[in-house]
Specification:
- The protein contains 8 helices and 3 strands.
- The protein is mainly α.
- Strands 2-1-3 form a 3-stranded antiparallel sheet, with helices on both faces.
- Strand 1 and strand 2 form a beta hairpin.
Length: 226
């Protein structure tokens, strides 16, 4: 049985950039529902207890859209919570900053690319910073689609573009949400750890193991060929 991961901070820790009300609704209702539906659908598909990463990929391979949508959304949201930290955290540095400079010249240019991609993404989805053979890139995915089913990319950071992620705080101003999110709550330490994992140092993000499954049984996000 897959569990709803606890937030890595208090509900009010990201305020005023992401409100406690938004987090309670987003995590406690939307994410919770995805996890509950994944448990039901994975059992019916004979995949209960498998690492969630495997469930997402297998659902995609089978063309099981209902299972894929719920399992991928459960995974995306768990990754998203880790991509945020309370305001005032560290800026990019070290290898991450060098990778940003190599791909975008500087952090401001990365922000512009990230915000532009998110603002111009039609309807619901996710905006990602990923790494791969060509270095860092900004991409977006529609609806539940994620990096688990894309070859050659490894996720460093993601922001949710679904309206439930920002509408209570920003109404329809997605651009303001993305700008304030990037400047104030983006977790660059997590992104740096993901980049190190892509380079072979440490484990990348993995969804918490299903109940009754040893943590070592979870499958890590595959590293790209760099």
């Amino acid at each position: 049985m897959y569990v709803l991961p606890e937030l890595p901070y208090d509900h009010d820790a990201l305020s005023p950039f992401v409100s406690a009300d938004t987090l309670r609704t987003h995590h406690g209702k939307h994410h919770k529902t995805y996890v509950e539906k994944t448990n039901d659908l994975a059992a019916k598909a004979g995949l209960a207890g498998r690492p969630l990463e495997e469930v997402v990929r297998e659902a995609s391979r089978r063309g099981d859209k209902k299972l894929f949508n719920n399992a991928a959304q459960a995974w995306n949201h768990a990754f998203f919570w880790e991509c945020m930290r309370p305001p005032g955290g560290a800026a990019p540095s070290g290898d991450l900053l060098r990778a940003i400079d190599a791909a975008f010249d500087d952090l401001d240019a990365l922000k512009q690319a990230f915000v532009d991609e998110g603002v111009n993404h039609f309807a619901s989805g996710w905006v990602w910073i990923v790494t791969g053979g060509d270095g860092l890139k900004v991409i977006s995915t529609h609806d539940a689609d994620d990096t688990l089913v894309r070859d050659g990319v490894f996720p460093l950071l993601v922001c949710d573009l679904w309206e439930h992620a920002y509408y209570l705080d920003y109404k329809n101003d997605r651009k303001a949400f993305l700008e304030r999110w990037f400047d104030n709550v983006a977790n660059w330490d997590f992104a740096a750890a993901q980049l190190a994992s892509a380079d072979g140092a440490g484990e990348g993000f993995r969804y918490p193991a299903a109940e009754g499954v040893a943590p070592g049984g979870a499958a890590e996000t595959p590293r790209p060929s760099l």
